[in-house]
Design brief:
Layout lengths: L1 H5 L4 E8 L5 E11 L6 E11 L10 E6 L7 E10 L3
Parallel strand pairs: 3-5
Antiparallel strand pairs: 1-2, 1-4, 2-3, 4-5
């Protein structure tokens, strides 16, 4: 059981907001959650820095990123695949 649990990595789908850095992209993830007290839907936004080895993702693309070991001070995700191009 512990072997299976170790290999599970968090996978997230989001939109590329910036591709200006070399081999790095910024991915914005929007999530709608229910407020605990008022039970209204609230939009939450998170921005992750992800490693893009081949510089294949462009701004506006829908991408899938996966959690990995720490690659730099801010990067702990890597690009798995580009799901939809922006153009």
């Amino acid at each position: 059981m512990s072997e299976q649990k170790r290999n599970v990595r968090r996978s997230i789908v989001g939109t590329v907001t910036s591709d200006k850095m070399d081999k790095t992209i910024k991915v914005e993830v929007n999530v709608s959650v229910k407020h605990p007290k008022y039970e209204k839907r609230v939009n939450r936004r998170s921005v992750f820095a992800a490693h893009d080895e081949k510089n294949e993702a462009k701004s506006g693309d829908l991408v899938e990123i996966e959690e990995t070991r720490k690659l730099s001070k801010t990067k702990c995700f890597r690009l798995v695949k580009v799901l939809k191009n922006s153009n």
